[in-house]
Amino acid sequence: MTCTIGAELEHVSLADAARDDGLFAEIRALLLKHRVLFLRDQDITRADHVAFAKRFGALEDHPVATSDPDHPGLVRIYKDLNSPPEHYENAYHCDTTFREAPPMGCVLRCVETPAVGGDTIWVNMVEAYRRLPEPIQRQIASLRARHSIEATFGAAMPMEKRQALAARYPDAEHPVVRTHPETGEKVLFVNAFTTHFVNFHTPDNVRFGQDFAPGASHLLSYLISQAQIPEYQVRFRWKKNSVAIWDNRCTQHYAVQDYWPAVRRMERATIVGDRPR
Ligand code: AKG
């Protein structure tokens, strides 16, 4: 859909793909190539949605979003007049990287969309890494960073709830440049959940101790800001029954919060991933 990311699949039903090995294998290969796939008119049941997502692997719950009691693994992201924007999704992020093993990917279906607004943007973080200046690539090659649930979901919560969340999801540490486990590509792997580098050593911070690293926060902000570059992005206009399938290991996304108080209802299945290396 753009020169760097996204493809739209036509004349494919995900209900069929849930049952057809060949079709599923083709979709999986296209996902690795294009990083996010879009399909229209997927008037499928919730059971079909879950069955298709499960072809990729086991599903996991979301730390803050509500799961559908009748369809374990399906999370509701429903917004209306009574749920004002909480600024969770409208930050460039890779899903739940505060987990040791963040998700492999997601299958998101639109149940209801506002007349205007509510688009979602995806970003190709392999391209973001490739286009970094070479000295920066060298500088970040062996850097590691901390990812925390408190940086985003926790920030707006009362302290007690926030502490409970942090206890349930302790911070994780990941490489700043991860290698995609299937394609072998290098991926710039910092996002809204990333709080700081844990091994940014310079002559100065050896003197001050490794938690105080002059230049580190500037470098981290610079790396995080790469997701905002339009050349690495695709922006999708939802319709009822549109579906997006994304590879969470090499993309970030941003749900545009411009529609409140209109109603927007999405349902999402999240596929368990592996530990970034
Ligand atoms: C997420 O599922 O992580 C989101 O950011 C929501 C995406 C969307 O609702 O478009």
From TrEMBL:
MF GO annotations: dioxygenase activity
Origin: domain of life: Bacteria
Keywords from the UniProt entry: Dioxygenase, Iron, Metal-binding, Oxidoreductase
Gene3D superfamilies referenced in this protein's UniProt entry, alphabetically: Clavaminate synthase-like (3.60.130.10)
InterPro entries, alphabetized: AtsK-like (IPR051323), TauD-like_sf (IPR042098), TauD/TfdA-like (IPR003819)
Keyword Iron part of the UniProt annotation: yes
Matches recorded under Pfam families: TauD (PF02668)
Protein name (record): TauD/TfdA family dioxygenase
Family of this protein: Belongs to the TfdA dioxygenase family.
Domain TauD/TfdA-like residue range list: 4-270
Organism annotation: Polyangium sorediatum
